[in-house]
Design goal:
The protein is mainly α. The chain has two domains: 1-68; 75-273, no CATH class. 65% of the residues lie in helices and 2% in strands. It contains eleven helices and two strands, in the order E-E-H-H-H-H-H-H-H-H-H-H-H. The chain has helices spanning 17-36, 41-67, 77-90, 96-104, 107-135, 140-157, 176-180, 202-217, 223-227, 229-239, 245-273, and strands at 5-7, 10-12. Strands 1-2 form a two-stranded antiparallel ribbon. Helix 5 crosses helix 8 (202-217). The longest helix is centred in the middle third of the chain and has 29 residues, at 107-135. It is elongated and about 65 Å long. It starts with a strand and ends in a 10-residue tail after the last helix.
């Protein structure tokens, strides 16, 4: 579950929790200052922006802190990975290794998959959040809360250690990042990415937020293109050997559960307060 950019010598870390909380405090301070100024069109636009930036940076800081919890053991990770593989075979799902064999026959496709896994993940989410906040303010909180739900679920489930497919030598996986560059992981047990937290796939979870959220909110033809971000991500995480199919399934279920809970809470708030709460765009 990488959270960094890519450098020649390995992952480049994204902002730390200290930087995130600093941004949160600065945004809150800016919000207080603007709120005290005479009302203006610029102020009306900046107030919700500063407020949301404080929320997002604060949540990001909490996420980074939570990922620093001492989960260093590998006990049972390989055994659970084998159990997942056996379960998927019982369901007659195609093997992830068959997908990788298809990819490695073509260097350009392997490099494309590796780059997609390493680079597209976080920028796509940031672009989605900015677009949704600016263009679909009423539906934005629903999808932001769904993002929080799937991310929190991934943090909790990571305590059940599961190895990725590429760690099972008997399956004959190739580590594409070593073969083609653009590595997102350092040595096991180092960095911000937990290699024994394959279940669930935060890559797939965040891709589902972007793809399904865009499809639900937009009525433009290009929403069909963005929707493809989800199946492409599912294909890429399997082809690179970073995740099992079930890792993605669980991530999507976490998102759908979070969205359903958010919708239910909105209805309860409306019932109790009597004040109308904007209904999110139907998913």
């Amino acid at each position: 579950m990488p959270v960094g950019g890519i450098g020649q010598n390995g992952p480049v870390p994204w902002p730390t929790w200290e930087q995130a909380f600093s941004a949160c405090l600065l945004s809150m301070a800016a919000w207080l200052v603007v709120r005290r100024l005479p009302r203006s069109r610029a102020g009306d636009a900046l107030l919700p922006a500063f407020q949301e930036l404080a929320v997002i940076s604060g949540l990001y800081g909490v996420w980074r802190l939570a990922r620093m919890l001492p989960v260093t053991h590998e006990a049972g990770a390989l055994g659970r990975a084998r159990e997942i593989n056996d379960f998927q075979r019982a369901l007659h799902l195609p093997s992830e290794i068959s997908v990788q064999h298809l990819v490695v026959r073509h260097d350009w496709l392997a490099e494309l998959c590796n780059g997609y896994y390493a680079i597209v993940h976080v920028p796509a989410l940031i672009a989605f959040l900015v677009w949704a906040f600016v263009r679909h303010r009423g539906a934005y909180p629903h999808w932001r809360n769904g993002l929080v739900a799937v991310t929190a679920g991934c943090l909790v489930i990571r305590f059940v250690r599961v190895a990725p497919p590429r760690f099972l030598g008997e399956l004959d996986f190739v580590d594409l990042s070593q073969q083609y560059g653009l590595g997102v992981y350092g040595a096991v047990g180092t960095g911000v990415s937990d290699q024994f937290a394959a279940m669930p796939s935060i890559h797939v979870g965040w891709a589902a937020v972007v793809a399904l959220g865009t499809f639900a909110m937009s009525r433009s033809w290009w929403r069909w293109i963005v929707l493809m971000h989800l199946p492409v991500t599912v294909f890429v995480v399997a082809a690179t050997g970073h995740h099992w199919w079930l890792d993605g399934v669980v991530a999507v279920l976490l998102l759908l559960g979070g969205l359903a809970l958010d919708r239910r809470l909105r209805r309860q708030v409306t019932t109790v307060s009597g004040d109308p709460v904007p209904e999110p765009v139907s998913t």
